[in-house]
Amino acid sequence: MNGANPATRPAPPLPARVRREIAREQYRSELLVGAVQLGIAALLALLYAGSTHGAPVEAAPLGLSLLPSSPCCACGSPSAGSSGAGCWGWA
User: In the chain, where are the structural domains located?
Assistant: First the structure.
């Protein structure tokens, strides 16, 4: 033994076929997420187009645009963390 801590040693590189398969799965999942987001946006656009525009909720499109478009927002965190606050510190 050379005295190196096994926990701090870098992991060996993955084989090329494994890296290709991971990249392929990531691409497929991005397509699926994009399709779902596009479907939700289209549904919201249809609901907004069919709604009564005289109602006092004109700020609804702005509010909907501020919502995160995926389960994890820009910070990449799938959960609110231990503090219970959202990605931008919202409770």
Answer: 16-50+59-65
